[in-house]
Amino acid sequence: MVNNSDALIQRIEQLKKEKDAVILAHYYTTPEVQSVADFLGDSLALSVKAKEINSKIILFAGVHFMAETAKVLSPDKKVLIPNPEAGCSLAESCDAIEFAAFKAQYPNHLVVSYVNTTVGVKALTDICCTSSNALQVVESIPAEQPIIFAPDRNLGGYIKKITGRDNIVLWNGACHVHEEFSLEKILELKKEHPEAKVVVHPECKATVAAVADYVGSTAGILDYCGNSEASEFIVVTESGILSEMRRKYPQKSFIPAPPIDSTCVCNECRYMKMVTLENIISCLENESPEIVLDEDTRKAAERSILNMISI
Ligand code: 13P
Ligand code: SF4
């Protein structure tokens, strides 16, 4: 018997063909959304992929800044976002007008911004970065050159610590999911599973990153778990990544780290879960909502992303 979700998946596959569309999905979307993706990846891999795609339509199963990034890099494509309300607390913590005022206080600084920003902030940025390449981007800048790093204070603080650079000024932004992990509960889990490796996304607080065996982006964490001799991992990032981990490494075991407040599902990004099979169908059928950008802002933002890709 064909269940409802099978029927929805079949409809999406049919629409992709009819419309000449590809679906890019982030690891934090739900497993059923990941199942209709043509490309599944972290924010860096998806930005690079968006630039290479030949189809007429890109449907971005992820949050708004990711779809915007795809449009910046593929201005001739129609870029669709199934739910435009799917924002990002980190991108929203950095308003472009406030950021322009902040930047004006540091006229000699180069601006490095995390890809989790609006197109307006990217347009004010010299080099974009993702959690996969933030260290590489900062290390490509001469040591004496002062830097503004935005918007994530935790990723910025982590880069400051490992590079030993004290000439990095941080914007005070954070992600509501990654800041909620409880250090005490991770340490309790570690006692129960002494052989497990702790893998942490750099958007987590420094006290949590300090107990990690590995700190890295979602793709970095996946690779680390695959290459490690260990068979158990305590996963300190958004729980959507677990389905890909279990699919890729079925013989290993992955334990999601709990948030501080055990009554809430704070280790889930509520924005990523706003993408559903139903809104993907409606978006493909109507070719809407679509990402539309002002061309001057797009070009300025493109420069910062291309500067990143060329490193
Ligand atoms: P990645 O760069 O690891 O894909 O992370 C993006 C993100 O939004 C993490 O919260
Ligand atoms: Fe933004 Fe955090 Fe969600 Fe990532 S997990 S998309 S940083 S709100």
Question: What are the SSEs and their pairings?
Answer:
Elements lengths: L3 H16 L1 E6 L4 H5 L3 E3 L1 H10 L4 E5 L2 H10 L4 E3 L8 H4 L3 H9 L5 E5 L4 H4 L4 E3 L4 H6 L7 E4 L2 H11 L4 E3 L12 H10 L4 E4 L5 H4 L4 E2 L2 H10 L4 E5 L4 H8 L4 E4 L20 H10 L8 H15 L2
Parallel strand pairs: 1-2, 1-3, 3-4, 5-6, 5-7, 7-8, 9-10, 9-11, 11-12
The structure holds 1,3-dihydroxyacetonephosphate (13P) and iron/sulfur cluster.
Q: Can you walk me through this structure?
A:
The model has no long low-confidence stretch (mean pLDDT 94). The longest helix is centred in the N-terminal third of the chain and has 16 residues, at 4-19. The protein starts with a helix and ends with a helix. The protein has helices spanning 4-19, 31-35, 43-52, 64-73, 89-92, 96-104, 119-122, 134-139, 153-163, 183-192, 206-209, 218-227, 241-248, 277-286, 295-309, and strands at 21-26, 39-41, 57-61, 78-80, 110-114, 127-129, 147-150, 168-170, 197-200, 214-215, 232-236, 253-256. The chain has three domains: 4-85 and 272-293, Rossmann fold (3-Layer(aba) Sandwich), CATH 3.40.50; 90-175 and 300-310, NadA-like (Rossmann fold); 181-256, 3-Layer(aba) Sandwich (Rossmann fold). Helix 3 (43-52) packs parallel to helix 4. The strands form three sheets. The protein has a four-stranded parallel sheet with strand order 2-1-3-4, sandwiched between helices. A four-stranded parallel sheet has the order 6-5-7-8. With 311 residues, the chain is an alpha/beta fold. Bound molecules: 1,3-dihydroxyacetonephosphate and iron/sulfur cluster.
